[in-house]
């Protein structure tokens, strides 16, 4: 049986898809990159905002079209959107043969067997815990360290889709990182709804700093990048580890969402503007060369022009390296969806444009500080057809930040030192490679059941106690 996977949404969804695709391969299935060659198409949906939901529905509809044409036999929808809207989806999308929410994903293989979609004898997993990577950057991987969220933000439906926060066991996370290294990972991005909550629920004294130290001690992965840390998690211990360990990339994503205390209170966010200022100052004091990224929502219900000005003032003062900004959209079931004073759509778009213009100038100024410096970088794509090789500096995260274009020897998966020669726009750089520090890592070629990947002692299955 050929399985085609469509993964939508965040990096955490990517991790889930890799994990479950590997489990299917271990049951004798084969992965098909071309959906028109797949017997079964699995869509891992996102339900975070309206645009993501629409993208998920469009993908399901397209898979249904292929089914009607006889290209595939079965359509399966899984993940966050299904978790929240399974009943409605089942009514509106009869072409889908199986729905599984995010909380049911550990049942994917059994459910496929129960519905007669996956046939043949049940096989013991050859490589439990292995994730099957199917993208084009095997040297860049994501490592999910916890599931769910305990924050009660008024606008966010994540707890409704993913449940309360649950940390994975430290040794399981380390084992998974070791397996990623065996698959050729050179950069591993730690992801969770809030990395700093790692270990709090397990009460074993092993928090995020201890996890980072264990990852460094038990792997040789050159770069670990931390994404999504709330300001309260920037403890002296974490900052000390970041400052001390060169393999921890000087980069942090701290989602602030707004700069007005009144809006932050309505959002039910844990920090206030003064807290944000202090936290970024403390971070930059401990890790002077750190790049700080954040996210903001404009047009939240009740946001006044004064509130918006306070947000812009904060961004102008703090001078984040990068800002991901979005207009607010109400999510069913959240507290904010009941707020009566929504901001007109046209005003939301106007404020977003103004914020974007402000941050474009700030980001360009921050970028200029790197010109002329010799800095580490990773190469993602080779030069081709007159195009330069492409990769990222230490301060550019995969997919969400800009890229760097290289002149000089630059093989995909290699790590280099380069001289930054110019800023090509707000987010992109040009650089000249001065030397290669790490050649591309050899990537094992997995057979039908991933037998090329060795098993490390103690590796457990991929469910992580769901």
CATH architecture descriptor text of the largest domain: Alpha-Beta Horseshoe
What strand order characterises the main sheet? 6-9-10-11-12-13
Q: Level of helix content?
A: 25-40%
Count of folded domains: 3
Query: How many beta-strand elements?
Result: 18
What's the helix-strand series?
EHEEHEHEHEEHEHEHEHEHHEHEHEEEEE
Topology-level CATH name of the largest domain: pyruvate-formate lyase- activating enzyme
The structural class is alpha/beta
| CATH fourth-tier homologous superfamily of the largest domain | tm_1862 like domain
Largest sheet: 6 strands, parallel
Beta percentage is: 15-25%
Number of DSSP helices?
Answer: 12
The first-level CATH class name of the largest domain: Alpha Beta
CA gyration radius, whole angstroms: 23 Å
Unreliable stretches (pLDDT < 50, length at least 5) are 446-466
């Amino acid at each position: 049986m050929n399985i085609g996977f469509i993964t939508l949404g965040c990096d955490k969804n990517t991790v889930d898809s890799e994990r479950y695709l590997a489990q299917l391969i271990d049951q004798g299935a084969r992965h098909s990159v071309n959906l028109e060659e797949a017997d079964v198409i699995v869509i891992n949906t996102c339900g975070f905002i309206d645009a993501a939901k629409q993208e998920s529905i469009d993908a399901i509809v397209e898979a249904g079209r292929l089914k009607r044409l006889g290209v595939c036999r079965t359509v399966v929808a899984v993940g966050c959107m299904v978790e929240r809207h399974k009943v409605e989806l089942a009514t509106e999308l009869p072409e889908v043969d199986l729905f599984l929410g995010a909380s049911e994903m550990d049942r994917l293989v059994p459910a496929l067997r129960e519905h007669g979609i996956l046939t043949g004898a049940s096989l013991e997993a050859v490589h439990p815990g292995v994730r099957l990577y199917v993208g084009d950057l095997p040297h860049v991987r994501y490592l999910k360290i916890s599931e769910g969220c305990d924050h009660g933000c008024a606008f966010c439906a994540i707890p409704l889709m993913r449940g309360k926060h649950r940390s994975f066991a430290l040794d399981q996370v380390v084992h998974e990182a070791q397996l990623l290294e065996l698959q050729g990972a050179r950069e591993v991005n730690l992801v969770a709804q809030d990395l700093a909550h790692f270990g709090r629920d397990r009460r074993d004294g092993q928090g995020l700093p201890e996890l980072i130290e264990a990852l460094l001690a038990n792997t040789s992965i050159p770069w670990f990048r931390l994404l999504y840390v709330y300001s309260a998690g920037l403890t002296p211990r974490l900052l000390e580890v970041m400052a001390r360990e060169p393999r921890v990339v000087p980069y942090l994503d701290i989602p602030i969402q707004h700069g007005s205390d009144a809006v932050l209170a309505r959002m039910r966010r844990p920090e206030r503007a003064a807290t944000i200022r202090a936290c970024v100052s403390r971070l930059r004091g401990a890790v002077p060369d750190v790049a700080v990224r954040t996210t903001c929502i404009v047009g939240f219900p009740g946001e006044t022009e004064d509130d918006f000005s306070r947000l812009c003032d904060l961004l102008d003062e703090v001078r984040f390296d990068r800002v991901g900004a979005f207009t607010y959209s109400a999510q069913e079931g959240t507290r904010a969806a009941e707020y009566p004073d929504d901001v007109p759509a046209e005003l939301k778009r106007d404020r977003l444009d103004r914020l974007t213009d402000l941050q474009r100038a700030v980001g360009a100024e921050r970028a200029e500080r790197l010109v002329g410096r010799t800095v580490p970088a990773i190469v993602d794509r080779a030069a081709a057809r007159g195009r330069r090789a492409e990769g990222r500096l230490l301060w550019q995260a995969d997919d969400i930040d800009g890229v760097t274009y290289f002149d000089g020897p630059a093989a995909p998966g290699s790590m280099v030192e380069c001289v930054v020669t110019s800023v090509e726009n707000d987010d992109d750089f040009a650089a000249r490679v001065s030397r290669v520090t790490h050649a591309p890592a050899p990537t094992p070629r997995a057979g039908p059941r991933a037998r090329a990947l060795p098993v490390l002692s103690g590796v457990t299955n991929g469910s992580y106690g769901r």
